[in-house]
Each structure stands twice: as C-alpha cells, then as structure tokens.
Specification:
alpha/beta; 5 strands; globular; single chain; 13% strand; 10 helices
C-alpha cells in the first residue's frame, strides 16, 4: 500500500483527489491539508511515503515545503502538482528535492500512474515539463565529458534518471544488472557530491543553466 499525503489549498481539487485515491486498491490517502502549518508533526503521525505538493500555497510556499519535508523526512518522496510550468519553478523544486513534477491539467488516471511510478523509483513529469528538462541536454547544452568527471556510461544513466526511468528500466535499457546500475549511480553521487537522485539531476541541470 502506497501511503499518500496531499497539500492543496483548492478545496474542490483536494476532495476530488481524495476520492480518486479511494477508488484505487494500492494507494491510501493518509493526510490532506490546505497549508503547510504544523505539517511536520502531522506527517510524523501519518507517515506518508509520497506527498503531493502544490506550489502556490498560502503562508508557506510549496517549494519551501519541499525543503522542510526533505530535511525532516529522509525517505519521503515529493510530487509537485501545480499550474506553474516556468523554468525557475521547475528547477527550484527539483533542486530542493522534489522527485516528480505534474501539471494540474494531468488526467486523474495519469496522476495515479505517476504515484506508482514514483514509488517504484521513477521521476514522473508532465510532457511539457519533461521537454524543458531535456532541452538542457540538447545540442549546445550537453554535459561535456570533463564536467564533473562523469564517464560516458554515467552520463547516459544520468540522462535516463532525468527521463524518469526506474533502476530496473535503466538496467534493461543498457543490458546491465541492477547491481551495476546502483554502482554507477553511487559513483555519480560521489562525483557530484550529492546524496539523492533529485539532487544529482538538479545539480547537473543548474550547472548547464548557469553556463
């Protein structure tokens, strides 16, 4: 069972998402709140695996919420769910530790699939968001061979992480074992001086954006 918490100030949307998860067999909504006040103590009791987070929240922004939750809960995964699709919001959310980014026009079933994908180690993103992320790796913005001393294989695996592929899918893509993929990712983390997939992706993206 995937334990999900929702942070959304639109009451109608909040209720519709609660009803959506009630119709699934493998997802349970353990908390739903309209703002981030007292969210740490609440989630300590609710123990969600995944938090669906709006950005435009009252009092405390969703991006600040990502920072707070990631510093308080090491294993929690955060899926941004927002109307914002500009570069600054996307990359700031990823930099702070968000593992996925969906736009609010996403269809209900796609939200459910995104949660499952995130739980399995993927990084789901709405197509327009994924396109913006990938553009940083297109011609003229590719990570150079000497950037961070990443090998060709390590860069390929990092690109796959940006695409939202799980470890298993990356292993299948390159005909490698999951153990080998984990070893490559461990080396990537060490070279980038990060401790998570979202931090690794964010560091590379920001390095390209600021060149």
């Amino acid at each position: 069972m995937i334990r999900v918490a929702i942070v959304e100030d639109n009451q109608v949307l909040l209720k519709s998402m609660e009803q959506l998860f009630e119709q699934t067999d493998d997802i349970r909504c353990v908390a739903s709140v309209k703002n981030l006040l007292n969210v740490v103590s609440l989630f300590q009791k609710a123990k969600p695996d995944i938090v669906i987070m709006d950005i435009g929240l009252p009092d405390i922004s969703g991006i600040e919420g990502v920072r707070t939750l990631k510093s308080s809960f090491e294993n929690i995964q955060i899926l941004m769910f927002t109307v914002f699709e500009d570069d600054d919001k996307i990359f700031e959310a990823i930099r702070e530790g968000a593992s996925g980014y969906l736009l609010k026009k996403t269809r209900p079933q796609e939200i459910v699939e995104a949660i499952r994908e995130l739980h399995l180690g993927g990084s789901p993103m709405s197509p327009p968001v994924a396109r913006r992320v990938i553009q940083y790796f297109q011609t003229g913005s590719l990570v150079k061979k000497d950037d961070f001393m990443l090998t060709t294989r390590e860069r390929e695996i990092l690109f796959s992480l940006v695409d939202g592929l799980s470890y298993k899918k990356i292993a299948d893509k390159y005909y490698l074992s999951i153990h080998t993929i984990r070893k490559h990712i461990s080396n990537i983390y060490e070279k980038l001086h990060v401790h998570s997939k979202s931090q690794a992706v964010a560091k590379i993206l920001y390095s390209q954006k600021n060149k």
